[in-house]
From TrEMBL, chain A:
<dbReference type="Pfam" id="PF02361">
    <property type="entry name" value="CbiQ"/>
</dbReference>
<dbReference type="InterPro" id="IPR012809">
    <property type="entry name" value="ECF_CbiQ"/>
</dbReference>
<feature type="transmembrane region" description="Helical">
    <location>
        <begin position="117"/>
        <end position="138"/>
    </location>
</feature>
<keyword id="KW-1003">Cell membrane</keyword>
<keyword id="KW-1133">Transmembrane helix</keyword>
<keyword id="KW-0812">Transmembrane</keyword>
<dbReference type="InterPro" id="IPR003339">
    <property type="entry name" value="ABC/ECF_trnsptr_transmembrane"/>
</dbReference>
<feature type="transmembrane region" description="Helical">
    <location>
        <begin position="65"/>
        <end position="83"/>
    </location>
</feature>
<keyword id="KW-0472">Membrane</keyword>
TrEMBL record, chains C, D:
<protein>
    <recommendedName>
        <fullName>ABC transporter ATP-binding protein</fullName>
    </recommendedName>
</protein>
<keyword id="KW-0067">ATP-binding</keyword>
<comment type="function">
    <text>Part of an ABC transporter complex. Responsible for energy coupling to the transport system.</text>
</comment>
<keyword id="KW-1278">Translocase</keyword>
<dbReference type="InterPro" id="IPR050095">
    <property type="entry name" value="ECF_ABC_transporter_ATP-bd"/>
</dbReference>
<dbReference type="InterPro" id="IPR003439">
    <property type="entry name" value="ABC_transporter-like_ATP-bd"/>
</dbReference>
<dbReference type="InterPro" id="IPR003593">
    <property type="entry name" value="AAA+_ATPase"/>
</dbReference>
<keyword id="KW-1003">Cell membrane</keyword>
<keyword id="KW-0472">Membrane</keyword>
Amino acid sequence: MLRRIDSLSYQGKLSSCSPLWKSGFAAVMFVMAYIGHPPVQLAVWIWLVLWTVGYGGVPWKPYASLMAASLLFYILSLPALLIEVAPGPAQGMVLLGWGTHVLLVTPEAAERAEELLLRVGVCLSCFLFLILTTPFTGLLKVMEKLRLPAVVIELTMIMYRFLFLLGDTAASMMLARRLRGGGRGFRAAVADTAALAGRLFAKTMERYRGAIVGYTVRGYEGTIRMGPDASLPMPVRYRVEGWVGTALLAVAELCIRLLN
Amino acid sequence: MFKRGRGIGLGLLITAFTLYFLAVSPQEVYAMHIMEGFLPIGWALFWWILFLPFFAFGVRSVTRLTKEAPELKLMLGLAGAFTFVLSALKLPSVTGSSSHPTGTGLGAVLLGPLPMSVIGSIVLLFQAVLLAHGGITTLGANAFSMAVAGPFAGYAAYRLLMNTTRKEWLAVFAAAAIADMTTYLVTSVQLSLAFPSVHGGVWASFLKFGGIFAVTQLPLALSEGLLTVMLWKWLKAY
Amino acid sequence: MVELVLEWQDVRYIYPDAKGAALAGMSLRIPRGMKTAVLGHNGAGKSTLFLHAVGILRPQGGRVLHGGMALDYGRKGLKELRRAVGLVLQDPEQQLILNTPREDVAFGLRSAGIDEETIRQRTERALERLGLLELADRPIHHLSLGQKKRTALAGVFATQPEVILLDEPASYLDPVSERLLLHSIDEIHRTGVTVVMATHDMDTAYSWADWIVVLDRGTCRMEGPPDQVFANKELMEQLGLEIPVIVDLWESLPAALREGRPVPRSTEQFKVYLANNFV
Amino acid sequence: MVELVLEWQDVRYIYPDAKGAALAGMSLRIPRGMKTAVLGHNGAGKSTLFLHAVGILRPQGGRVLHGGMALDYGRKGLKELRRAVGLVLQDPEQQLILNTPREDVAFGLRSAGIDEETIRQRTERALERLGLLELADRPIHHLSLGQKKRTALAGVFATQPEVILLDEPASYLDPVSERLLLHSIDEIHRTGVTVVMATHDMDTAYSWADWIVVLDRGTCRMEGPPDQVFANKELMEQLGLEIPVIVDLWESLPAALREGRPVPRSTEQFKVYLANNFV
């Protein structure tokens, strides 16, 4: 699971193209998602799916499953968004009533949930476009351009380097625990997990000690300098489509606003 | 307008509840990361702005620490990677389902709350970018609840209990459990401010969101407290 | 016909997000009571094969049999399977859960719900057989890699499985520790356990195993006794596997001198032969 | 007398919290331009020896010399030393810092303050010579162990050191990756770099090295050319080190047949000899 998005982001057809262009484009689309009216939002949604799955070459199966998994939060929040308790008679679809109190879905809430679904979907498609077509090293370059403090970028780099190592270690430890049949009952299960986390911590410290030697040998003196951005420019064809499409969306949005 | 809303609303409602009961095996939801695009733009910006000063202070403290000892950068990076992997471990929960620990309480006790705000936000960035849990527009809000509020509350609880009771296990348990609880409460506040109820306003909305996530978050806080105490013991023996 | 402990019938498996198939129609049999070596490069499918044997992975096509019966993937079936088939992972760090060899060996027994007295006895016996008694109460992070590997093996052995699968047990060990570990494995085999070892050391495989299985890109390319397998030079070359030094040298002797003689299994046998024939 | 690149003079070192000395009067010389193999069991002091060569550890007694001069442990001296003496650790994960081979290889150059154009060229050359060009932009966690090891080696090679020390480079590799790595090491040696390899594989050491050094419990027990070292059977046995199979078999041939002939260095040479003499 940990490797899934990472692998996809390196294998796509747009992977080696400029991360700056892609994140700039995604940022503009985020703005569209927020300020646009439903028709424009829908257009952005469809367009970005096309960019990711079509131009980016991200397989549709993992794409759809990521989209669905992310929507789980929305689904989980639905009852809170929809259901209201009113102290007296109120407008809406009544689900339950006792005394003067009613449990109901108000039209405002239903409308809000609809709007939210649309916005969440569009934003997700922007978000997935960015993370599925841009390798993490590219995002680091963007962070650098955004002038994030050097220490944050270095920490991010170091973390990224060790995430997968520790992740693999944890995965094999869990495998071993399954093979050997963990303890029974809640307490034993928590104790096992704690032992596992502890062992993982010990491993982490071991990695730390090893890395200090390794980094020193390589001439590390407290700072990691990043190289220049070596990514390819976005192909002209896509750049043109990006600009033209954005312009069209902006015009459409303007028209809707003027007509209302 | 209302007619249309009602028709679609009803459809939504039915599908939603069917899905709800099919899908709510909460282990797959990193329950308290607000998803991409969920917050209205005003609130998304608001939480970013609230989060940034803490982040800036955190960066300053980390810079100062690592200037004195550059190898601490490696240590902090590894601590972050460890927190990330820890949060992917499934933790048996008292309710029988399983949940994911956050590790922010333990981190705050070990590293201090300010460095944890930096490490925690990077961990959140990774969860967003590598696991698609959370998002970019909501990163400010999530970071505020999980990397700022949680660690600070957990750390405060730890100090307080250490000074008053001197029972280390109790302090560690409280740090972990309270960091979790605080994160959960702050997130509920964030959601209810963004989506106040028509009847009863923000307070009613807080009860609803709080109620829904309590199902996963209360047992999680308890299990995480227990886990952290056992982990603490384990580390001491080591 | 020998009895089979484990059998893979045309098993197919593709990891999610992987490009190629890890197992692409794997058909393979493990005879009971023997010492089997599974040969092949990294990526040939050795680990995936083992994970199928303990039901961690389920075939996407074909089936796996244990004792002639298709695996039962129910909760109870899996529990029984994992009691009968023990897997020792390559890196012992990941397999060891508790803090000392004694505690760790007892761990697997305790979760099987055995009474404490039996646990104590069995743990003692396992530690003894693997030469770990003196180290039994030392914290695991003070042990050498070879000792950790033997502890991991002891933990599996103590649960008394029919088969023990070992994934690259000798990797990273120096020659002395490797010899000790191989000795322990032989000790275990002598108690009647079927032993299967994945390795890419041809020399070890040749002198150790009774039965050899050669994997390549998710299929089984050959199975048979060692001399027969390594006699197929063409296949070995095609798969990029080395011929054991002894076999290689033996084959370069003139055919007349080798006629009717078995290929020596060890340097010792070869030396005896040379000494007897060229004086 | 050959020129020495590195020399240890009666070096003593005890790790904090350890019982015995890791180096107990280690005296050892590494001749320039040669391929040296450092032999010994785990714990014989191989890694400690290497860490002294790059100034990570400082002798508690005795001294270490580089190019005939005692090491300067000042900031500047260490920087120069580490530019001249490259160390490749056993676990490549420890020493890979950035996220793709291209970036990582450039890391060492960039921190030496070289201009970007030269960095680009040297990185390219190092990647090419180690056969990593196609993998250059793949994230490191997608590489196999063998590829990671070659990346670590490339990172050290790119900084153009005089000597490269390799700590157990072949451990954990399958035969194909091992052959590739050894090939890369020979490539590097051909550019004029002195190469030193710690190993416990006697067969590899025997066929690969020009010069062999045998360590035991923190001291150097023997140094010399391979045939001479392995001719000392008594010592090898006493240290529990194996004789290379080829030497072992050769020695078991009757003395009359061996007289005046050099011991074969590889299976190939042995085969030629057998084919020529027993037809």
